[in-house]
Amino acid sequence: MTPELIRSGPLFRGAIFREIAVSTNASGTAIARIAALGLESNGRDVLQVLDVEQETVSALEVPSLESLGWRLALTRGPVCLHRNGKVFECTPVPVPTVPLSHDILSDDIDSRRLIPCVDFGNACDIIRVIDISQSSTSQATSLFLGLTCSGTLFSAPLSSSHLVLAQNANSVTVSGDLVVYVTSAHEAHFILTTVLAAADGSTDVGSERRRVERGSRIVTSIPSAMNLVLQMPRGNLETVSPRPMVMAAIHADTDA
Q1: In Å, how far are 222, 232, 249 from 229, measured between CA atoms?
Q2: pLDDT digits (tens, 9 = 90+) for 74-92
Q3: Is the pLDDT of residue 47 over 80?
Q4: Which CATH class is domain 126-255?
Q5: Domain(s) of CATH 2.40.128: residues in the chain
Q6: Which residues pair with residue 189 across a beta bridge?
């Protein structure tokens, strides 16, 4: 794949930025949306969002973050933030910013700007947002995955109670229609996103499993090649082709 340059030169000013996310699913005439999260000189977290067009870059106004500890969620769609296990969808609009109260779930939130999505109840190191199309209803929904530093992996559909998938996960990724995670028990687990989207906090979801080398962690997945790339404790990378990923690719080809 040949990288495509979408913009060069300085983009953000006035803060020290620690996280950046680029989405090519921007609306309108924008070819990309760039979100950067950092720290202002006054010690507060700040979010800046830009829409990149062919010739210009447009800054969008977003809610001010009146507290610390915010993170960017991994998503291909709208900008999402999380803090203390609570996930919010940010909708940048060209209106004056509205400060958040210290209780980020209170009625003081401008719900048109920062919309609560799910609450995992625990601070997460990684949160992924997956857009899922429901063939039965022809509608799209969102699935949220949260992984804590201690290894607890959560799953929750939009505005629903969360489900604990594992308490010993060390890495997670999404490969096509599969959620893939590896545990400290040296197993890779594979669950359909549609199954998780229909589950609630009391649902017992099963998963296909395969053994992996001790200490393996997920680097990435390549759905088109049916490959899962793992990093070993000694640093080398290994590629495997798990049966669930192979079957998912076959089903996709036969349904096309």
Answers
A1: 8, 10, 16
A2: 988 888 999 999 999 987 7
A3: yes
A4: mainly beta
A5: 126-255
A6: 181, 209
